[in-house]
Amino acid sequence: MNAMRTLIPFLAGLVLATACVTDPATGEQRASKAAVGAAIGAAVGAAAGAVTEDDSSRERRKRALIGAGVGAIAGGSVGAYMDAQERKLRERLAATGVSVTRVGDQIILNMPGNITFATNSADVSADFYPVLDSVALVLEEYEKTVIDVVGHTDSTGEAAYNQGLSERRAASVGAYLDRHGVNARRILTRGLGEVAPIASNDTAAGRQQNRRVELVLEPLTAG
Asked: Residue ranges of the domains in the chain?
């Protein structure tokens, strides 16, 4: 946990300088408060994941995919591969409420809880199926991408309950992608409960932002 407290502000500070989103009206990328919030969330998720995730799970995933013939991306091709995937995701997710944030070779999809799940439920809302279908189509096309599905909650209620809810919600999104054509070996799910907020939990608006599932997409590389 001490490592997480050190990593989170460090990564958040780095991402603040680079965060951007696409304006749905113009199609242009721009810096914004929403972009900064999403980028901080991505940094927080990455930091927490680096501390809490079993490294052997990531290594097993990589070996399984390469062994199954998926193959790793050569270093010089990573940028173009992720650029193309980002463009496709932005096209399909425009005006859906899901933000697309690029941080280096990562793409982070932030799925707000209010459009993804009913209150206190881990079942994906039927209204959100078309959005996840669009995500699944892109991920199926870009098969050399690995996916971490990370659940988050606000701080309302017991921490243990929030942790369990975040895990169940991440698992539901991961299972949906699996059922809709995304190789399950590419997906790892985990929940971070209330420990990685992107806004203040002292306001209703802030708590709503904190209730989310993030998809962290990374290229499958040999290194």
From this structure: 55-219
Tens-place pLDDT, residues 173-193: 999 999 999 999 999 999 999
Q: Which residues contact 41 (CB under 8 A, 6 or more apart)?
A: 108, 110, 152, 196, 198, 212, 214
Q: State pLDDT tens for residues 129-178.
A: 999 999 999 999 999 999 999 999 999 999 999 999 999 999 999 999 99
The confidence band for 27, taking pLDDT boundaries of 50, 70 and 90, is low
Architecture of domain 55-219: 2-Layer Sandwich (3.30)
**DSSP-derived 3-state class of residue 20:** coil
Distance CA 90, CA 217 (A): 14
Q: Which of 222, 169, 219 is nearest to 191 (CA)?
A: 169
